Every structure is written in C-alpha cells, then in structure tokens.
Amino acid sequence: MNEHGYIRVAAAIPSVRVADCKFNVDAIIELMRKAAERKARIVVFPELCVTAYTCGDLFLQPELLRTADRELRRIVEYSAEAPVTAIVGLPVAAGNAIYNCAAVVSQGEIVGVVPKSFIPNYSEFYEARWFESGMKAPCDEVTIAGQKAPFGVDRLFKLNGVGFGIEICEDLWAPVPPSLHKALGGAELLFNLSASPEVIGKHDYLVDLVRQQSARTSSAYIYVSAGFGESSTDLVFAGNGIVAENGATIACAERFDMGEQYIEADIDIEYLRTQRRRRNTYAADGCLPEYRVAEIRQDAPAADDINRRVDPMPFVPRDKADRRRRCEEIFAIQTHGLAKRLAHTGCRCAVIGISGGLDSTLALLVAVRTFDKLKLDRKGIIGITMPGFGTTDRTYNNAVTLIRELGITLREIPIAAACRQHFADIGLPEGDRSVTYENSQARERTQILMDVANMEGGMVVGTGDLSELALGWATYNGDHMSMYGVNCSVPKTLVRHMVEWVASTEQNEAVRAALTDVAETPVSPELLPADENGEIAQKTEDLVGPYELHDFYLYNFVRQGFSPAKILFLAEKAFEGRYDRATMIKWLRTFFRRFFAQQFKRSALPDGPKVGSVSLSPRGDWRMPSDASSALWLAECEKLE
Fold first, then answer.
1. Which one of 49, 169, 327, 637 is the catalytic residue?
2. How far is it, in rounded angstroms, from Cα 90 to Cα 99?
C-alpha cells in the first residue's frame, strides 16, 4: 500500500489461441510486464487463460496438460524479476482428476493453487465432463511447474499485509459463494477468474452481481473474463473486466475488443477496513472454514498517485437521471418524516420562517408536499417572513412570491424594532456589529416562530441543513432550534440541486422563476446590513469557506474515516485547477476546528429524518463528547503546510 492506504490491482485479458499454450503465455508475460511497469501489485488473468477456456475434450489430452504445466514455468521464472503477483488460470492434474485452477505466482514461486469449487454442468457449460470440484480434492499439495505448491479451496493470501482470496467463475453464481467466507476470513481483495460468454442482458446482471458482492463483503471485487481468441463455435467471449469497491464500480473494461485488454484500479484498503470495523458481522465467526494463509512480501515502491476518479461532490450524483432520482427519494423521506410527526401530534399547522434562501425554501416545499399528501389545507402552513437589518429585496421578494403562489398563509413580522429595543435593554452599543448583534436577530426570529406556533397550535419546521450543523453555522437556541428539522441530514451542495429539481418540475411560472433565483442566490444569514447597492454583504462562504469543500471534507471524515492528510490528498485530485493547496488547507483547518468546537450544538438537535449515509444526529449517527479535543487533527493540518 502507499502512504494513504491504496493498493493498485489490475485485470488483464490477453488475446488467446485455443490450445496454444506458448502463444498464450507470451501474451500473459507481456501483460505482467505492463502491470509491473504501472506499479500494480497484483494482476489477475481469465479462467484457464494458459490453455484457453474453450479447449473442450482437449483438456483430457495429457499433452495439453503437460504443455500448460511447462509454460507455467516461464511465468514463474518471469515473476522472479517482475515486482508483481500474478493470478493465472490453467488446468491442473492431481491424482485421478483434473481441476480448473488459479495459480498465484510471485517472486519466482508458486505461492498457492486454488481450484474451482462449483463446476457447472448446464446450458453452454459442461465443465463436469472434464473437471472435478476442488471441494472434493484428496490432497492439499500439488507438484506443478517443477514446484510443490499448496493446493485447495481453503487458501487465502496476504500481500504485504493485504488479504486476498480467489474464486473462479461459477463460484460467484453459487447460492453461497466462497468469497463470502473468504471475506469473513480476512480477504479484502476478491479475485474472480472467469470465462463467461455473452448473451443478451447478461452483462448488466453481471455488473450488478459483482458490485453487490463487493458491497456485501465490504471488499474490492476484481472480475476478469475471457476475451478475443476463444472459440466462437457456439459462443462469443467479449472480455469483461470489472473492479468494484464496497458497492461502487470503479473500473470497467471495454467489451468486444479484438486486442488485449487491461484495466487497473487503486483500491482503498484503509476505507474497506474502516467499513468492516463498523460492521459487527466481521467479528470472529466460529462457523467459518479454517483457512490457510500464504504470506507474500514485495518490496517494490507503491504508486504515489491513484488511478481513480475522486468525486468532488460525493453527496451529489454526477448523472442527471441519478441525481433526479436522488432528489425524489430524499424529498419523499423528508415528506414521510414530517407527515408522521404531524399525524402523531394531531397537528394541522406548520410554522416556517421563510427567508428566501435555499434551506427555508426546501423546508417550505417539503411542508407543502406533506400537507398535500395528508390532504390538509395549505393555509395551515404559516410562512413568516421577518425582515431585519440585512434583508435584501431579492430574498424578500422571493420569499413573498413563494408564500403567495404556493397558497400558504403569509405573515410578515419585521424584527428591527424589537431587536433595537433588545439591544437597548442589554446595553449593546448602537454601532456594535458583534456576534451578539447577529445572534440576537436569529433568536428573535426563533422566538417569533415558537410563539406563533403556540398561538396556532402548530409546529415549527426547522430549516437548518447538514453542512451548517457540521460547521456549527447556526445560532444556539436560534435557528439551531425547531420542533422538527426536515433538512438536518441534507448537505448544502445537495440542497441547491433539490431546489433546482423542484423548479424543473414546477408548472407555476412564478414559483419556477422564484425557485431558480433562490438557487442562484449567494448563501447568507443576512444578519449584517446590505451593501450600498442593496446587495447581500454577508456571504457565508466568504466567512467559513466554500460549502463544496466542506461537504467533501465532511463526507470523507465522517463517512470514510479519513485523516486530514488523506482528505487533502483526495481534495487536490478532486478540485485540481479550482483551489490551490494553501486554500484547501486553510478551509480544512477551519472545518476541523469548527467541527469539534460546535459539537455542543449537535448534542441538542431536534428530531429530523436521516436521508443518507452521513448524518450527525446525536441519537445514533454521531456520538461525540462536546468537549472532545481537536488537537490531533489540527496538528496534522499544521504539518500539511
């Protein structure tokens, strides 16, 4: 692994000639050379690639078996000089049976041989005609390529401490794939050598199967299947290479290529280990088979960079259709949560402070959808606009337009006079623009909302989002407080997309125009007076940093468990050309300082629905003492300068 916990693996698909072992091994060695030059630590080849998969009854010919064995020696010899571990498929005769095997070759040695467990005997596959199941093997050692090698389905391997296991083709389709037990036994990488022909619809199912197996096992699953050169007498082999990590496909080969195919991916072992530690299903299990583990040491330097895309917006799907589905699902979760709370309390009134900003707009839209679902009169939603010292015409007009056009009850309650009286009561100087000046306005607004809710027998719907909670960008017992917070686990980067999504589906032109403008308005609490042009002077992202950076930091710290150094490493790749290193370090330091210092606000959060894998609810998702020290994380940030 490199310093950030990544290991590079490769899947290689050589062009083959059926039963021409020398030709096939020449191609295998060339791809091993490529993998070594690319600093891949492990390269896996397709099932029976030394002979080709489609040899048929030739597998019963001793000459083919002897030639495959002899040619394997060349792979072993080459491995002595190449800093890469190769997993190659070939037939192996042992006793009175032939086994469909994967040989693990490294540093001039056959580290182990793993036979196929499940032998198909249906449709286009008649392997039982030639091969026996490895689960019936009578020996635990075979002589192969002039060496005595460990043999059996109970073999696991460790390369510089990274565990990996092997299964072959049909094994993955079995009701209980061997990879399930191998993952529980310590395999973090799962390799599948396959020879799966193409038929209509099969590829999509295969990709889903590989992806789901990686998710189920919290592993990286590397699948490689035979390609061009296999016999096309009855079947076509298109060459599938798929790498999935914990449920996400991170690399995929181009099918139907008539040349060799090679893909590689950097697997985040640190991330996989973090996920497993969070799942108690990876604790010791007395029902597991006993695995024998072979240790492999490679001293070659690991790749410094990573060959994978790093998503700068981890909360926001890149694909428009996926993003639309994500928005729809989140909206449904928010609506369902609020509906249950209203039904449970018997409440027919919701009170929301509408500022004309992103968060309050999303909360308003959720409330409207909820009332419609419950068949309640929209007039039971009281939208209160509370203009203050920093309110601009732009946000005020958008707020009023949305309230009126959506058919809810409008109340306008200016707060300037009440705040001035409060400032006089507590002795705050006239020109003071301190945090007291700002927070007093937020608390005045919250008091209005709570008191109106009491008067109307209603419920205050909170508007604060996940990003604000992470940074503590909320006034304690001000906008921090509500009776139900519908946005509490929606990050700011996604809130904007959700408002845009609703706008794209809205039939009312005035509502659509207002929503579009809300999505384009700079994020601001509007607690300081506007500038000389009446525009927003207090822009949140100028004060605490870009939300796209903070959401990236939040996801990788809370969800992935990464250190500041690794987060910065990923951020530099994700935001290349958009932020320089110094800027990213500056806001990374701000993130950790505020995240730790503001935990006390999260410890007193109102209820609200969880919508994604990252949530900061103190009741189950993020349990951290309010006085936990940030020293370790800030010290590492200082070292990044």
1. 169
2. 8
* Residues constituting the chain: 641
Say which DSSP state 174 is in: S
- Return the number of other C-beta atoms located less than 10 Å from residue 605's C-beta: 21
For residue 411 the two structure tokens come to 């109340």
Identify whether the C-beta of residue 279 lies closer than 8 Å to the C-beta of residue 455: no
CA nearest neighbour of 355 among 309, 313, 391, 312: 391
Cβ atoms 358, 325 nearer than 8 A: no
Token pair 């039971």 is found at 380
Catalytic residue among 116, 182, 492, 601: 116
**CA-wise closest residue to 525 among 580, 480, 493, 577:** 480
Q: Three-class SS of residue 468? A: helix
User: Which class for 378: exposed (0-12), middle (13-18), buried (19 or more C-beta within 10 A)?
Assistant: middle
Query: Which residue in the list 39, 47, 492, 566 is annotated as catalytic?
Result: 47
In angstroms, how far apart are the furthest CA atoms of the chain?
100
Is residue 610 annotated as part of the catalytic site, yes or no?
no
Q: What is the pLDDT averaged over residues 384-409? A: 95
CA distances from 603 to 205, 487, 513, 520 (A): 44, 17, 38, 32
Q: What is the pLDDT, as a whole number, of residue 526? A: 65
The closest alpha carbon to 549, from 501, 589, 511, belongs to: 589
Distance, in Å, from the CA atom of 257 to the CA atom of 269, rounded to the nearest integer, reads 31
Helix (H, G, I), strand (E, B) or coil at 477: coil
Count CA within 13 A, CB hemisphere, residue 213: 33
What single-letter DSSP state applies at residue 413? -
113 DSSP β-pair partners: 103, 151
pLDDT digits (tens, 9 = 90+) for 492-525: 999 999 999 999 999 999 999 999 999 998 887 7
139 is catalytic: no
Residues 159/41, Cβ–Cβ less than 8 Å: yes
**pLDDT of amino acid 265:** 96
Q: What CA–CA distance (Å, rounded) separates 90 from 474?
A: 63
pLDDT at 527 over 80: no
Q: What is the Cα–Cα distance from 492 to 618, expressed in whole angstroms?
A: 20
Instruction: Indicate if 488 belongs to the active site.
Output: no
E strand or H helix at 148, and its extent?
strand 147-150
